[in-house]
Design goal:
Oligomer: single chain
Number of helices: 13
Largest sheet: 2 strands, antiparallel
Distance between the termini: 53 Å
Strand content: under 5%
């Protein structure tokens, strides 16, 4: 089916959503927000406010808004999500830096070029990067790493390239160019004893859980870095979770599938990591304070993001 929706200038966008039942108390201010944020971006926040019919496979979301849907509330939800993304980027940055150090220390024991040495990594890392590809996962990782180092304008990279022409940097220098995705992939390619040592540093009970968490956090980081809606977006894959016996502080959602596939589980991962990285961090209190500012609404609630009842009284957040 060909796309046929016409271009609409901002005044017509405003008329459209008013015609669908959205309450707008200040037309001029609403036009300012539509000009600054954009109709399409805001539509992700008003999606839960649209009327729906049916259930299961026959569930249909209509164009009309539920009664008492206020444009001002949509903007408040957008602002809350913006603050949430910034707070998550803050903690993920700390985790990224600490993770980089631990992977470097663990692989560095095996040699300055351990990240390039297939013998220092798990045999599974030599499997094809994609069906039919002649390039292994390790080879693809190295290629992307080397391309990043070749184009880097960082002073340390320029210095190394000028002083050691044609040589590869040791892991403790190379690691400075790894982003979260590169580290997550390299972690999955480490030998199991190395993976477990890194996981244990962060208090994660198994390398399988650690690998799952890193994948989830990488997706979350990319969502936040690209300023996409975050507050109630489901995770692509449910992360593995420790049992209450393995990690009592995380046990309050061990069987809560909704919590495990939304923002709340990601926040719990971050809080858990921080207890190893910086147990005196104020991030947990700032997260609780932000959650308390969730817009007052008769239509949506913070439960949509996986927050269980009395979550802030759980041991993890105490």
């Amino acid at each position: 089916m060909a796309y046929s929706k016409p271009y609409l200038p901002v005044p017509d966008q405003l008329a459209l959503i008013k015609g669908r039942g959205m309450v707008i108390s200040d037309d001029a201010l609403a036009e300012v927000y539509l000009n600054r944020i954009g109709y399409y971006r805001l539509s992700g926040y008003w999606y839960p406010y649209r009327e729906s019919q049916g259930s299961g496979a026959s569930f249909i979301v209509g164009d009309r808004f539920r009664p008492d849907t206020k444009f001002s509330e949509i903007v408040e939800l957008y602002v809350f999500d913006k603050k949430l993304r910034l707070l998550m980027m803050d903690v993920i940055e700390r985790i990224e830096i600490a993770l980089r150090v631990q992977i470097t220390l663990e692989l560095g024991k095996l040699g300055a070029q351990a990240h390039r040495d297939a013998q220092a990594l798990h045999p599974n890392f030599q499997r094809a990067s994609a069906p039919g590809s002649t390039e292994s996962r390790h080879q693809k990782w190295l290629r992307l790493h080397d391309e990043a180092f070749a184009r880097s304008k960082e002073e340390f990279a320029k210095h190394f390239k000028s002083k050691y022409t044609g040589e590869h940097p040791p892991i403790w220098i190379a690691a400075e160019l790894w982003d979260f995705g590169a580290m997550s992939l390299l972690y999955s390619g480490m030998r199991k004893n190395g993976q477990l040592a890194v996981a244990q540093f962060f208090g994660v009970p198994s390398f399988q859980i650690m690998e799952s968490w890193l994948h989830t956090l990488n997706v979350a980081r990319n969502i936040c870095a690209h300023h996409s809606r975050f507050w109630n977006k489901p995770t692509p894959v449910q992360p593995k979770w420790p049992t209450p016996a393995e990690s009592p502080d995380l046990g309050h959602i061990a069987t809560n599938v909704h919590a495990l596939t939304r923002v709340y589980a990601i926040a719990c991962m971050c809080a858990h990591f921080l207890k190893a990285i910086n147990p005196n961090s104020s991030w947990l209190m700032r997260f609780k304070a932000l959650a308390a500012t969730f817009p007052s609404s008769s239509i949506v609630s913070i439960k949509s993001a996986g927050f269980p009842q009395d979550w802030d009284k759980a041991n993890l957040w105490a």
